[in-house]
Specification:
11% strand, Muramoyl-pentapeptide Carboxypeptidase, domain 2, 236 residues, elongated, binds zinc ion, alpha+beta, two-stranded antiparallel sheet, 52% helix, 6 strands
Length: 236
């Protein structure tokens, strides 16, 4: 018994010593590892800073990419079609020779389905686009950026390529050049059938620079046309 009591008496201080030793060892470990912890912290901090820098660099890259397109107010530049490639399809409407047949076939096909397409505007010279853009802009008291949402600046219109056509519904002329054209039979037919004739809607609802133009279609049925719109298609 005495021996046991002695042992117990002996064990208590030993336990205390172990506890003191433990807390000491944690402190020691912390001291030993503190440079590593500091390094680890610095590593993550540096990574965070780098990521932020890469993020802002990404933004700069994105901006230069847009600038590399040479866009003006969201419009891509288009050169004027050589005159010898233009053909008359209506008394006042000329288009690129490549798209004439497809365009006329499309109108005939629609007619067979009881839908009457009317061509409103085809090729427009840069000079005419200049008049449209600047006269309407001042007439409507609009700033350039505002006007550019609904009309291309001169040198930046798909119409100068001869591959663009504005289409209306012959039975609903009040919808010409209006967003409500999308409710006409002509538009509904075009959405279902235009691709068969290689036509594509240029300015859809999700275009962030230019307003939705349900009447404006472009031809992509020849290599020349595809080349002309390559940049535009790459973006969308
Ligand atoms: Zn147009």
């Amino acid at each position: 018994m005495e021996q046991n009591e002695d042992l117990n008496q002996f064990e208590i201080p030993q336990a205390k010593r172990i506890y003191v030793n433990k807390s000491n060892s944690i402190l020691k470990k912390l001291l030993i590892f503190s440079p590593f912890l500091f390094l680890l912290f610095s590593f993550f901090a540096l990574r965070l800073i780098r990521n932020i820098e890469i993020g802002s660099l990404g933004n700069i890259n994105f901006q230069t990419q847009i600038n590399r397109d040479h866009r003006i107010l969201g419009h891509l530049p288009y050169s004027e079609i050589p005159k010898e490639k233009l053909v008359l399809i209506e008394p006042s409407i000329r288009v690129h020779i490549d798209m004439r047949d497809s365009l006329l076939e499309m109108r005939d096909e629609a007619k067979k389905n009881g839908v009457y397409l009317v061509f409103l505007s085809g090729y427009r010279s840069i000079n005419l686009q200049n008049e449209i853009f600047y006269s309407l802009k001042s007439f409507r008291n609009q700033e350039a950026a505002e006007r550019a949402r609904v009309s291309a600046p001169p040198g930046y219109s798909e119409h100068s390529t001869g591959f663009a056509i504005d289409i209306g519904d012959a039975t609903k002329r009040e919808a010409d050049f209006e967003t409500e054209f999308e409710n006409t039979e002509a538009f509904k037919w075009l959405i279902k059938n235009a691709a068969k004739f290689h036509f594509k809607l240029s300015f859809t609802k999700d275009n962030k620079f230019i307003d939705y133009e349900p009447w404006h279609w472009r031809y992509e049925g020849s290599i020349e046309a595809l080349k002309v719109f390559e940049r535009s298609n790459r973006k969308s």
